[in-house]
UniProtKB/TrEMBL annotation:
<dbReference type="GO" id="GO:0005524">
    <property type="term" value="F:ATP binding"/>
</dbReference>
<dbReference type="InterPro" id="IPR027417">
    <property type="entry name" value="P-loop_NTPase"/>
</dbReference>
<dbReference type="Pfam" id="PF00005">
    <property type="entry name" value="ABC_tran"/>
</dbReference>
<keyword id="KW-0067">ATP-binding</keyword>
<protein>
    <submittedName>
        <fullName>ABC transporter ATP-binding protein</fullName>
    </submittedName>
</protein>
<keyword id="KW-0547">Nucleotide-binding</keyword>
<dbReference type="InterPro" id="IPR017871">
    <property type="entry name" value="ABC_transporter-like_CS"/>
</dbReference>
<feature type="domain" description="ABC transporter">
    <location>
        <begin position="8"/>
        <end position="237"/>
    </location>
</feature>
<dbReference type="InterPro" id="IPR003593">
    <property type="entry name" value="AAA+_ATPase"/>
</dbReference>
<dbReference type="InterPro" id="IPR003439">
    <property type="entry name" value="ABC_transporter-like_ATP-bd"/>
</dbReference>
Length: 315
């Protein structure tokens, strides 16, 4: 991967707000045409990092290079080469769909004839042609999302940064949106997408997991799942809530979650299956304990787990 062309390079990237360190010595590399995902809970530093990469927020320390531009020095030159889509609908709700795109084409300095041609192309691509004269504020969540994406790629950016872009839309709209993102990546656009949805994170070619402003994991979803210490376990019994209470606070248990009538248990110790079976048996709970396939949620819980507390011992 290092032989590929880097689009984003960040070294020691740090952002402090008073006593709070929102981003803590982050090293990041994103290569051309990657779909790189930032995965993490709200408040972990995803949005702050994206704003620094855009040049919208000054870092407290560290170096940033985006598309060969030094940030913040070359932030103005970078603006015409990147697209930025936030989680909140950021277009003008009292203008029509067409008027919003006309305005953005003017702001981007697109030649009039090319701008009109590009708008027609995007209206058709994102199923908005019949909404051209509709006020943007009256669109559904999925339609607003498609309009925002059209506005973000109007000028054909080399890099598209998306900050939790699907947080307010239904599952079908999310699937359609991701199809559009892969279409852009196939055409050579590099994408950095922040999310807290595991199913979206699995779609990315590479993932960075943030925890309290630090990058705690970096790799493809398959690589991260393969590197998970130990194996997740599935505990099948008649009363999974009783099993969960019996395992609460056990040192071999990192996290638990009830899935239907089973209990999914994450542990990093080699003999977890035997230890958990014994612990349940001593509590008089009959259970079948077996290994199961890892998923990204297991990875996320494992790398963000703080062993000094038991706060993460149940889901």
């Amino acid at each position: 991967m290092n032989s590929a062309e880097p689009v984003i390079l960040a070294r020691g990237l740090t952002k402090r707000f008073g006593q709070l360190t929102a981003v803590d010595r982050l090293d990041l590399r994103v290569d051309r045409a990657e779909v790189f995902g930032f995965l993490g809970p709200n408040g972990c530093g995803k949005s702050t990092t994206i704003r620094m990469l855009c040049g919208l927020l000054l870092p407290s320390a560290g170096e940033i290079e985006v598309l060969g531009c030094q940030i913040p020095r070359d932030a103005e030159a970078l603006k015409r080469r990147i697209g930025y889509m936030t989680q909140k609908f950021s277009l003008y709700e009292d203008l029509t769909v067409g008027e919003n795109l006309d305005f953005l084409a003017t702001v981007q300095g697109l030649p009039q004839r090319y701008g009109r041609q590009r708008i027609e192309e995007l209206l058709e691509r994102y199923w908005l042609t019949d909404r051209r004269t509709q006020l943007a504020g009256t669109l559904s969540g999925g339609q607003k999302q498609r309009l925002a994406l059209a506005g973000a790629v109007l000028h054909k950016p080399d890099l598209l940064l998306l900050d939790e872009p699907t947080s307010a839309v239904d599952p079908q709209s999310r699937r359609e949106f991701w199809d559009s993102l892969f279409e852009l990546a196939e055409a050579g656009t590099t994408l950095l997408v922040s999310t807290h949805y595991m199913d979206e994170a699995e779609r990315c070619t590479r993932l960075g997991i943030l925890d309290a402003g630090r990058l705690v994991a970096d790799g493809s979803p398959a690589e991260l799942m393969a590197a998970l210490p130990g194996r997740p376990l599935l505990v099948e019994c008649l009363q999974p809530r009783n099993a969960q209470r019996a395992l609460q606070g056990a040192e071999e248990v990192i996290a638990m979650a009830q899935i239907g009538n089973s209990l999914r248990v994450l542990s990093a110790v080699a003999d977890a299956r035997e230890r958990i079976s014994r612990r349940l048996a001593t509590q008089g709970i009959e259970a079948h304990v077996q290994e199961t396939e890892a998923n990204l949620e297991d990875v996320f819980v494992a790398v963000t787990h703080h062993p000094q507390t038991h706060a993460g011992a149940h889901a």
